[in-house]
Amino acid sequence: MRIALTNPTCWPEVRRGSERHLHEHAAWHTAAGHEVTAIATHAGPRVEEVAHGVRRLLLPRRTPLGLHNRWIGPWHAFAFQVRDEVRRAAAEGRGFDVVHCLNYHDAFGVLLAGPGRPRLVFHNAGIPSRAYFRRIPHDGWMFRRVLREAEGCAAVSRHAQAVMQREFGAASVLLPAPCDLARWHGTPKPPADGVLRLLFAADADEPRKGAVLLARAFALVRAARPDAELVYGGPASPAAVAAIRAAAAPDDLGHISFVGVGTPEDLPARYARASLLVHPAVWEAQGMVLVEALATGTPVVACAHGGVVDVVDDPLVGRLFKPGAIEGHAPTGHAALATAILEAAVLAEDPRTETRCRAHAAPFGWDQLGPRYTAILESVPICKRKVA
């Protein structure tokens, strides 16, 4: 097949789940013998290159009218860039058989390519909600048109799948985001040494990720486990650091550290050193950071909200906690989080847990999920749907 994969931003300039998904997906289908073009934007001029067999188109990130907000911004411009690239490929005699889009803006761009466009698979990487579109009704119109006209729609978790059906009347196939597990499985995990090391590996500036909640819970954790240490790995602005420190107990500040994002090569060892990965986020479509931690043998704690329940569905590899009231897009159940951490700490000290965690991550590998992607790309259209 001649496959195009699209996402508004690219790896590793932007290090989030959908960017890495695009990067790994392109590599997997190229290795499987398909002709793959990955299309995204970056902060620079147009670049066309071939890396490890993958043709990459990195388009200049445009800000229409000099604006960058929910109403108009680079992602809207990207729709028209995708339209132009789809048309250009067809005009040059190398048109795509199918385009797999991880965002509705670029999926809309495929529709704009008009008659004779490639088949379209829209893979919703988030949790769709009518409420989100109330302030941007033109985006809501785009999203519904994509759901109506795409030959196939997919969701990364059962929760996201159910919300799409309930709020938009759109059927979709369940297609989790895979992970290249080799480098995580190949990282040795140090033996437990009596120190409870908690790792937060998300964007501390995003309220829904629960960074401040974890600081509040840490006071309760240290009351029971004075050996506990808390490491924040990931983006954290000075304002976020100040908010976290303000939420923590004064006596705990010396046991809280900020190590930054690090490089992609740093992450497996960082996860392996942790006793627990704590991911107290709400509205997660899937939560790939949980899969990564499990693949290094590290048990996890997560919020029983959104798609993470598809990953943390076994008490032998982690604990879920109830978020409490969600205020300002952030969870508030710090006592429930502390209890979950202390229960999961017992897992971290069990020598059997490492093997269980690594095995639990295995179904999310490309070797398991990649053939499902191929089957869907080959077989679209895959479902009929009525969009509300």
Could you describe the 3D structure shown?
By secondary structure, the protein is α/β, with parallel strands linked by helices. The chain has 2 domains: 191 residues, Rossmann fold; 182 residues, Glycogen Phosphorylase B (Rossmann fold). It has 13 helices and 14 strands. α3 links the parallel β5 and β6. α3 crosses α4, α7 packs parallel to α8 and α7 packs across α11. The radius of gyration is 21 Å and the shape is globular. It starts with a strand and ends in a 9-residue tail after the last helix. The mean pLDDT is 94.
In short:
The protein is an alpha/beta fold and 388 residues long. The chain contains 13 helices and 14 strands. An 8-stranded mixed beta sheet has the order 3-4-2-1-5-6-7-8, sandwiched between helices. Strands 11-10-9-12-13-14 form a 6-stranded parallel beta sheet, with helices on both faces.
